[in-house]
Structures are given as C-alpha cells and as structure tokens.
Amino acid sequence: MIPAAFDYKRASSAAEAISLVGQYGDEAKFLAGGHSLIPLMKLRLAQPAMLIDIGRIKDLSYIKDGGDFIAIGALTRHMDVEKSALVIKEVPLLAHAAGYVGDAQVRHRGTIGGSLAHADSASDLPATTLALGATYVAQGPKGERLIAAADFYKGFLESALNPDEMLTEIRVPKMNGAKWGFEKFNRRAQDWAIVGVAAWRSKDASGVALVNMGSTPILATSVSDALKSGASVADAAEKAAAEAEPQDDLNASSEYRVHLAKVLVRRALEKATA
Amino acid sequence: MVDIKVSITVNGTKEEKDVEPRTLLVHFLRDQLQLTGTNIGCDTSSCGACTVHLDGEAIKSCTVLAAQADGGSVTTIEGLSKDGVMHPMQQAFMENHGLQCGYCTPGMVMASIGLLNENPNPTEEEVRLGLEGNLCRCTGYHNIVKSVLAAAKK
C-alpha cells in the first residue's frame, strides 16, 4: 500500500513548522516519527495534501529535570523515554509504558509527542500521561499555552490542539516514590491493548487511567475517590468503568471490556499497593 | 506533486535519486535499487519482514518514507556478508535451522542483529520479547530464538 500523493516539506524549527502549517492550513499535517500517521495514510484514512516533516527538529528531543516534573521534548522517541535513567528514576510508570508501545522497531521511530497528538484512546501513552496528571505544552503562531492532559482528549483521534498548533513538550509530575502498576491485555504480542490500565498510588492520592475504554483515554476518578474514602482495592476496582463508554469491536464486546477493566484495575492497584 | 531528491547511503554506497514524497523506504530499496532481499509482508508495520537498519537501528521500512531516511545510512540483508562470508547471525540461522520458507528471514536477521547491538547477552525471554515485532508463520520461533542465542555466543 502506498499513501495518496502529497507534497513534502521539512521544517528545521518549531517556528518554521508552525509558519508552514499556517501557510497550507487544513491540507497540512505534521509528520514526526510517522508510526501513527503513515499507517493511516496507507489505508487512506488520512489524506493530507502536504506533510510537514518535523522529525529532524533536534532541539525538541530531550529529557530534562524541571523540578517538580520531568520535561520531555515532543520528538523524543519511545525508546529514549523507555531507557532514560531520569524517567526510570522519577516517572517509572511512564518508562515502563513506553517500553510496551508497539515493538522495538516502532519504538525506534515513534515519538511521545506524535503518539499523544494522534490522540488514539487505544494507545498506551495518552492514558499513562493522563493517569500521571501530565501537562502538555502547545506552541502556535501566538506563542505557547499549557493544556492539562485531562483537557486534551476531545474525541476519537481528536485533541484540543488547534490546526496551527504543535505539541512541543510533555511535563510529567515526578512520582516521588509512589508505587504503580501497568496492565495491558492483548491477544497477540505488539498489538494495541484490548483494555489497558495505568495506575499509581501514594499515601494519600492515586491516579488511574484506562486504555481503549471509550473514544478518549479515560481517567477513572471514581476509583481514586473510592480509594480516598478508604475502600479496599477490590471494592475500588469495581468502579473501574464508571467513567468509561467502551465500544464493541471484533476483539471484545463492551460488557467484556467492562469486566476486563475491573480485573486489570484491581491487578494494577495491587501492584501499586504492595 | 513535486518530486524530491534524496541521498541515502545503502550498504555503503551513496544513492541519489528523485522520488515521489510518498515513496516508502521499502519501495525505494526494492523498486529503485533492486534490493529485493527486503520483503514486504503485512505492509501494516506488524510483521517485520521489511526490517532494515537505519543509522544502525532496526526499523520497519514499510512505515518510513524514503524522504525521512534522506541523509541516513541504511543496511539491508544484502549488506551483511563480507567477501562472501556470511554475517555471524546469518550463519547462526543456518546452523540452527532458524528458517523454513525463508520469507520472514531477512527481517528476522536484521531485527536480531539490532537486538544484539542493544543487548549483547540477552536471556531467552529477552530474545522473544525483543523479536515481538517480527512474525514467522513456519517455525514456531523455537529455532529462531535458538539461532539468536547462538549468535550472541559467537
């Protein structure tokens, strides 16, 4: 399969990329690692007339200590997040989840910003950064703005980014030793999760988010509320799907997804509580 | 749509070509350079048959544009042997019956070399996990894993 024809421009800075996208408007898409966009283009589910390749903007590939948070450049590859000593130490849940995206070849090319901007509820990192309370930095023609992960996901493959905005940085709060669990249930190695769970828990707080339990990644606030009011892990896990609107597909009925979510939230929280 | 010029070093030789922007790296290798050792299997970045190295790392060439590889260095299965002597990984696949029909083999070998570059002494489990992006429909993987472990000892 070959994508429909398009024109191609390479941007060497975020400013240049934003100016190019302003010039070409709705016809244009940013290309980072391409591991979400190119498959869609091959299937003709996306047909941009202009691809703006941002993959070589080197100053957007970094991992830095921001004090309370770890700052990750949007063009940092999954493999670099997975193997970063800083991420492993301060945000181990994210390092672990990054290591389960696709397979090794995919992780060599795919980027964290590309995955989040693609806003696929079946991807691991949108839910993981949502559970961790991350903030995303978007840059547009008028400058930067911060978008909380909880406000970012608007619908199926739809984010709060304006067409002329680019995701430039992901700020993930340090976990400060909080324990965590990550569960990904799939039928074959390297597949998307049928249901996935990213969860962490500290002495007085928790964060639980679900993969593939609706058109957006789902923050399971009822689970955290239950834990806060003293519920056991098993009882809290029963509330796993309270915020979810799971879909039926070839792999699973919505009822089965609800069952899986409860089981996987329980398992993840047991790890985060051990 | 405007063609673009790319310059990609493939198996040590610099190749300069005009390509349509939509040209995938695998088609650039197979159709423009006639390097047909790299296979197209699923064409949806699942099966890994098209795995080559880009700047030393295993990638799926069906999901990378030739334009994205511009200026880079690509190694394909054809670039592994030196003076008629097989790469140790190729040798290990042969000695351990790591293939049957052979369709997945170029991708398996390239992914396995990439795996050992990053983890020279993997456990059996690490080999299985490390090759999760490559599908084989014949061998049941047992002898592929054996081959990679044997190559790691060479």
TrEMBL record, chain A:
Q: Does the keyword Oxidoreductase apply?
A: yes
FAD-binding PCMH-type domain location: 1-177
So which domain of life are we looking at? Bacteria
Q: Which SUPFAM superfamilies match?
A: CO dehydrogenase flavoprotein C-terminal domain-like (SSF55447), FAD-binding/transporter-associated domain-like (SSF56176)
> Keywords in UniProt for this one?
FAD, Flavoprotein, Oxidoreductase
Q: Which Pfam families match?
A: CO_deh_flav_C, FAD_binding_5
Molecular functions (GO terms): FAD binding; oxidoreductase activity
Q: Does the keyword Oxidoreductase apply?
A: yes
Q: Which PROSITE patterns match?
A: FAD_PCMH
Protein name, as recorded: Carbon monoxide dehydrogenase
**Species per Swiss-Prot/TrEMBL record:** Acidimicrobiia bacterium BACL6 MAG-120924-bin43
